[in-house]
Design a protein that fits this description.
Blueprint: H1 2-10, H2 15-31, H3 35-42, E1 51-53, E2 56-58, E3 62-64, H4 75-79, E4 85-91, E5 104-107, E6 112-115, H5 123-131, E7 139-144, H6 155-166, E8 172-176, H7 185-188, H8 191-206, E9 214-218, H9 224-237, E10 241-244, H10 258-264, E11 268-271, H11 275-288, E12 295-298, H12 304-313, E13 317-320, H13 322-327, H14 330-341
Parallel strand pairs: 3-4, 3-13, 4-7, 7-8, 8-9, 9-10, 10-12, 12-13
Antiparallel strand pairs: 1-2, 5-6, 6-11
Bound molecules: flavin mononucleotide.
C-alpha cells in the first residue's frame, strides 16, 4: 500500500516538507490508537532474531539509521514499525538551523537521496527532554557531533558535552566523524585526532557507574590506507564497534543527469547508489580485522537481499534510512523474515 498509494503522493512534494508531514502523520495515527495495528502488521517477534552485542540485547538486527529522528521525537512510534533499535541524532550541544534550504533532494531514478542538512537539530536540551519519555525497553543509540560554528580546538569538548549529558538516556553512542555537510573534514579524518577524541570520550565513560558502548561512524569513501588506519584505531583503542557507512561524496554511475546533479550541488549521497560501496567497506573491515569488532552495516539497503548481503559481508546488525523512505515500513519485516528463512 505504501509504494502504490502513499509514496506517489508524498514524492510529489518537497522532500523536507514531506519528512515533517510524515512525522505528524505518524504521531497522529498513534494518537488515534493505530500503534497496536502497526505493531501487528510490521513487527516480527522471534527469539532467533535476537542479537547480543556490546552488552546489549537487540530484539532484532534491523535498526533505523541516524538522521531520521534527529531530535528523538518519534522513536517510540517508529519502534512500532518493527525496528530492533533506533539511532537518534546527530545531536550537537547547541540547537542549530543547519544549512540553508533547499538541502534535501530525491534522485528517483537512482533510488537515492542527496542531502546537505548540516546537523539541523534542537540540541542536547531538546533531545534530553524527549528521551525522558522513553518507555524503557527500546534500544536507542545516541549519535553525537559538534556544532558547525565550533572551532577545531573545541571539537572534543563538543563531543564530551553531548556524551556526558546523553549518557543516562541512550544505550550506545556513535561518534559521527563522517558527515560530509559540516566542513571540518580534515581534522575528523585525521587518525591522530580520532585517537585523541576516542580516548577522551572513553575516559569520560569511566566516570559513570555503567559504561556505554562507543562506536565510530565512518564514510564509504575511505581508501584502503584509511580503512587500515580505522582497523588499527579500533583495535588499539578497544572501541566497541564501527558503523559503516555514512553518505558518500561520490557521484559516479548515477542515472541522474549532470545538469540535475549540478543543480543540486553539494551533499551526501545515500540509498541504492552507495549500496556496493558500503558493503565493500564492511567486507574490508571485517576481513582486515579478522572480524575482531562489531560492525553495523548501513548504506543502500532497499530489499531483504541487500540486508543479507551486508550481513554476509561481516555486519552484525543493519540500519536503514533511504530504503525506509523508498520502500516503506514493510522493508523491516521483509528483512527479518529473510533472516529467519535462512
Ligand atoms: C536526510 C538524511 C539525513 C541524515 N542525517 C544524518 C545524521 O544526522 N547523522 C548521521 O550519522 N547520519 C545521517 N545520515 C546518514 C544515514 O544515517 C545513513 O548512514 C546513510 O544515509 C546511508 O544509509 P541509507 O542508504 O540507508 O540511507 C543522514 C541521511 C539522510 C538521507
Amino acid at each position: 500500500m505504501y509504494k502504490s498509494l502513499l509514496r506517489p503522493i508524498l514524492f510529489s512534494f518537497d522532500p523536507e516538507k514531506v519528512h515533517y508531514f510524515t512525522f505528524s502523520l505518524i504521531k497522529l495515527s498513534h494518537k488515534l490508537g493505530f500503534g497496536g495495528l502497526f505493531r501487528s502488521i510490521y513487527k516480527t517477534t522471534d527469539k532467533r532474531l535476537e542479537r547480543n552485542l556490546f552488552g546489549l540485547k537487540f530484539e532484532n538486527p534491523v535498526g533505523l539509521a541516524a538522521g531520521f529522528d534527529k531530535n528523538a521525537v518519534l522513536y517510540n512510534e517508529l519502534a512500532n514499525f518493527g525496528f530492533g533499535f533506533i539511532e537518534i541524532g546527530t545531536v550537537t550541544p547547541l540547537a542549530q538551523e543547519g544549512n540553508p534550504k533547499k538541502r534535501l533532494f530525491r534522485l528517483k531514478d537512482d533510488k537515492g537521496i542527496i542531502n546537505r542538512m548540516g546537523f539541523n537539530n534542537e540540541g542536547l536540551e531538546g533531545a534530553i527532554e524527549q528521551l525522558k519519555k522513553n518507555k524503557g525497553k527500546l534500544i536507542i543509540g545516541g549519535n553525537i557531533g559538534k556544532n558547525t560554528q565550533t572551532l577545531p580546538e573545541n571539537y572534543t569538548a563538543d563531543y564530551l558535552t553531548c556524551f556526558n549529558a546523553l549518557h543516562p538516556y541512550v544505550d550506545y553512542f556513535v561518534l559521527n566523524v563522517s558527515c560530509p555537510n559540516v566542513g571540518s573534514h580534515a581534522k575528523l579524518n585525521d587518525k591522530d585526532y580520532l585517537e585523541e577524541l576516542i580516548g577522551a570520550v572513553q575516559e569520560a565513560n569511566k566516570n559513570f557507574d555503567k559504561q556505554k558502548p562507543i562506536l565510530l561512524k565512518i564514510a564509504p569513501d575511505l581508501n584502503p590506507v584509511q580503512l587500515d588506519e580505522i582497523v588499527t584505531l579500533v583495535q588499539d583503542t578497544k572501541l566497541d564497534g564501527v558503523i559503516a557507512s555514512n553518505t558518500s561524496m561520490d557521484r559516479s554511475g548515477l542515472k541522474a543527469s549532470e545538469a540535475r546533479l549540478t543543480e543540486i550541488g553539494n551533499g551526501g549521497l545515500s540509498g541504492q547508489p552507495i549500496k556496493d560501496k558500503s558493503t565493500a567497506v564492511i567486507k574490508y573491515l571485517a576481513d582486515k580485522s579478522n572480524k575482531s569488532f562489531p560492525i553495523i552495516g548501513v548504506g543502500g539497503i532497499h530489499s531483504a537481499d541487500d540486508a543479507l548481503e551486508k550481513l554476509d559481508a561481516g555486519a552484525d546488525l543493519v540500519q536503514i534510512y533511504t530504503g525506509f523512505i523508498y520502500e516503506g515500513p514493510s522493508l523491516i519485516k521483509k528483512i527479518n523474515k529473510a533472516i529467519l528463512a535462512r
